[in-house]
Amino acid sequence: MDIRPIRSDEDHAEALAEIERLWGTPVGSPEGDKLDVLATLVEAYEEKRWPIEAPDPVEVIRYAISDLGHTQAELADLLGSRPRASEVLNRRRALTVDMVHKISSQWHIPADLLVRPYHLTERA
After folding, report:
1. Per the database record, which ranges form the HTH cro/C1-type domain (predicted)?
2. Angle at which helices 57-67 and 72-79 pack, to 10 degrees?
3. Under a CB-based contact definition with an 8 Å cutoff, are residues 123 and 80 in contact?
4. Residue 4 lies in a domain
């Protein structure tokens, strides 16, 4: 297989088959170099073809609560009150810079995941 841009799902399948064939070749060998280049091309194609959106900040916080062992009570302690934590989780209050800093530093969540724009629920 000649190395060329991946422009279709057929090209993608061929590149994956070649990667499988080359898997385990020595780093720095001609085959290893070909494997590195093909892997880079496949990654670029997959990111363009099937992009994965980063979660919004509320989803990140909910994930930290549901899967990382944190609790809504801990969030309330970080944010200063249970109602404030509830408002954030229900998208009725936007995160402030201070809130982002506290959550990021205490829960070890990258701040860039918490400062992304997200929608708030409109109040009745």
Report:
1. 61-114
2. 130
3. no
4. no
